[in-house]
Write a structure and sequence with these properties.
- By secondary structure, this protein is of the alpha/beta class.
- It has one domain: P-loop containing nucleotide triphosphate hydrolases (Rossmann fold, 3-Layer(aba) Sandwich).
- It has 11 helices and 13 strands.
- It has a 9-stranded mixed β-sheet, with helices on both faces. It has a 4-stranded antiparallel β-sheet with strand order 2-1-4-5.
- Helix 5 crosses helix 7 (about 160-170) and helix 7 (about 160-170) packs parallel to helix 8.
- The radius of gyration is 21 Å and the shape is globular.
- It starts with a strand and ends in a 5-residue tail after the last strand.
Length: about 325
């Protein structure tokens, strides 16, 4: 039996806006297993990053609220834990790599000063021991001159080096779960490949689980074991990575895959999904994807579909209403 590290059930995260309460994440459920890399994919605005911030307890409390659901990590419901206990877990047992390394690193503190913070909070190491451990971690993630770079500032490093610093920051306390939010964004292709290889190596060597949030299907194919596809705050499809790429069921997943370039095709124009992800406060009636879907019919425009299950594959689409499948009990 596979051990579940993270289990999210019926999570709904809302934001209080000038237009009222809007659902950024609407009743999603997913699991991350031990030693697994799970990818969450979708266009910008589909709720991927809000899901990660909900797990980490980093939502802005003045405007954001986890309205319902549970986030169980190692048997503990993070939604119910007091802030003090969340701080002990955050950066220690669960760590996160944020999207933009330049804005995530403080420009007025050295690399060493910033990497010392989780060690001060979660260990009893002295200053010299912390410095030694930081240098070891910088070497581990492939940063040259680690004993010098530890005293440098973020602006003195390239984008790839800053991202490696972010990875070392997340890895210092050897977390059980690493959340990586668009870890290769804004990096050139060569550096992207290096970061992907580095994360795969770290995951294998540390028996760690990774929740990878990305819109890059190439990175998903290279890294992930399973994939969850999100659209407009909901899970619309999930399966193992091979099934997603070879047998996608949801029209949105098919559209994402169709837009990928292939080495043997020469086209003047890349295929794309028409329209944009709707704003959380402007969701259409019925299926959220229906206005962009070439397979939509009357029922799609008036009623939201449930999540159907086909073995270990799940799909939220009315196209499969009359097929032989199981409707998940938790579907809305």
């Amino acid at each position: 039996m596979e051990k579940v590290i993270l289990e999210i059930e019926h999570l709904r995260t809302t934001f209080n806006t000038a237009r009222g309460l809007v659902k950024a994440v609407d009743d999603i459920s997913l699991r991350v297993y031990e030693n697994e890399i799970l990818g969450i994919v979708g266009e910008s605005g589909c709720g991927k990053s809000v899901t990660s911030l909900s797990i980490m307890g980093l939502l802005p409390q003045s405007v954001a609220l986890i309205e319902q659901g549970s986030i169980r990590f190692d048997g503990m419901d993070l939604v119910q834990l007091p802030e003090e206990k969340i701080r002990r877990i955050r950066g220690n047992q669960i760590a996160m790599i944020f999207q933009e390394p330049m804005t995530s690193l403080n420009p007025v503190f050295t690399i060493g000063e910033q990497l010392s913070e989780p060690l001060r909070h979660h260990t009893k190491l002295g200053r010299k021991e912390r410095r030694k451990k930081i240098i070891e971690m910088l070497n581990l993630v492939g940063i040259p001159r680690a004993d010098e770079i530890i005293d440098e500032y973020p602006h003195q490093l390239s984008g790839g080096m800053r991202q490696r610093v972010m990875i070392s920051l997340a890895m210092l306390c050897r977390p059980k779960l690493l959340i990586a939010d668009e870890p290769t964004t804004a990096l050139d292709v060569t550096i992207q490949a290096q970061i992907v290889d580095l994360m795969k190596t770290i995951q294998l060597e540390n028996n760690m689980s990774i929740l990878l949030i990305t819109h890059d299907l190439g990175v998903v194919a290279e890294m992930c074991h399973r994939v969850v596809v999100m659209y407009a705050g909901k899970v619309v499809e999930s399966a193992d990575v091979r099934t997603i790429f070879n047998q996608p069921k949801h029209p949105y997943t098919r559209g994402l895959l169709a837009s990928l370039p292939t080495h043997h095709e020469h086209k003047s124009e890349m295929p794309s999904i028409p329209g944009n992800v709707p704003r959380p406060d402007e969701l259409p009636t019925g299926c959220s994807f229906a206005p962009r879907c070439s397979s939509a019919f009357d029922k799609c425009l008036v009623e939201s579909p449930p999540l159907y299950q086909f073995g270990r594959q799940e799909c939220r689409c009315w196209l499969y209403e009359n097929n032989d499948q199981e409707v998940l009990a938790d579907a809305r």
